[in-house]
Design a protein that fits this description.
A hairpin with a 5-residue loop joins strand 1 and strand 2. This protein has two helices and two strands.
Amino acid sequence: MPQTIEAVMDKKGHVRLKEPMHLPETRRVLVTILEAEPVARIPETAPLSESALAADWTRPEEDDAWSHLQQVQSS
């Protein structure tokens, strides 16, 4: 199962993990370079899920599931 851990990369590209990590064998990793400081007060991982959620929200099943909230009741 994929895990996300925080690390710091210096100008030379050396990666230092914030916490020790022990793996049973060599693994592939993905490195995402973030801003030095967060630009906004939203979590940095929020934009990563935006495209996946956008695709999910446009499904007809989602429209059906939330349709009761879109109905306007007349008085």
